[in-house]
Amino acid sequence: MSLDLHRRAVVADTHNDLLMAVAARPPERWAPFFAEQWLPQLREGGVGLQVLPVFVDDAFRPEGALRQTLRMIECAHVIAEGNADAVALCLDAAQIDAALAEGKIALVLAMESMPGLDDSVELISTVHRLGVRVASIAHWGRTPLADGSGEDATGSGLTSSGVAALKEMERLGIVFDVSHLGASGVAHVLELATRPLMATHSSARALRDHHRNLTDDQIRAVAATGGVVCVNFFPHFLAADPSGYTLDTLVDHIEHVATVAGIDHVGLGPDFVREVLMDVTPPCCEDAGLDGIDPYATVPGLEGPRGLPLVTEALVRRGVPDKDLLKILGGNVHRFLGEALR
């Protein structure tokens, strides 16, 4: 029964760094490697809508960051063009709906921390022309636009360039992603934003006190904009101890966000990183840890997209009604992006 429900759902994954793994190959391998390595996983997991973030490793920063950003954006286009029977890179709501209607996976291009753009806010228009429709402005540490959550002690909001970036994103129709943004930065964005916000991969701080997670007040505030909070599956953000790296703990976070935000404002932002890190050649994987975190840790069964039906089964066991489950799995994200990308 749960598998039938999963197949009926528009399953949306709002954060999978697979572009890092694909772009590590020679360009002539991008489309076939995606078809061989990732497409079967996405199909088995039932993914219908996939947000693809562009994230650039420290090894490319600062000199090569913009070049690698453009390379990864090109990679996304090549993946779509080379697998046109299975996926479509979507620029607006109509294209997302068309892809889903044709049985294709709708790909939405995102940027994580605006790598390489620095404070050149005018380049946001450039990446929009290239297909970017979702973006955040910080990662773990400091950028010219804002501080990431790893710098919460600074208490800083957006820089003047960060404020300009938010305004430019709203003008262009790029969804602003608060995941990774420091607490003061989130508060600053909430003061200034005039369009709905999104957290592409953030769990609940009430259940796991980690700076990468959102407090209940932040979750409520994002929902109040009309936005959606998508729960991160990365086990270190779910529990402080490996004994808590379980499917039940993940479902606890999903149910908590649904309770705090409202059932219409929760989604899934898995952040499957183990395979990406194992698959990307050095220097990425030589020193991938942050603050002592094991980047290869996973919730058993959720090492990658093919495990997503397990989440549906767990939610069914919890007694989540079918209509609510369809919203959690991707209905909310589909609706949200449909409204944001008109």
Helix segment tally? 13
List the uncertain runs.
Answer: 283-288
Order of helices and strands: HEHHEHEHEHEHEHEHEHEHHH
SS elements, strand count: 9
Which features characterize this protein?
alpha/beta; 342 residues; 13 helices; single chain
Describe the structure.
- Its EC number is 3.4.13.19.
- InterPro entries: Metal_Hydrolase (IPR032466), Pept_M19 (IPR008257).
- It is a single chain.
- This protein is α/β, with parallel strands linked by helices.
- Helix content is about 40%, strand content about 10%.
- The protein contains 13 helices and nine strands.
- It has helices spanning about 1-10, 20-25, 30-45, 65-80, 95-100, 125-130, 160-170, 185-190, 215-225, 245-260, 275-280, 310-315, 320-340; strands spanning about 10-15, 45-55, 85-90, 105-110, 130-135, 175, 200, 230, 265-270.
- Helix 9 (about 215-225) links the parallel strand 7 and strand 8.
- The two termini are about 35 Å apart.
- Residues about 285-290 have low confidence and may be disordered.
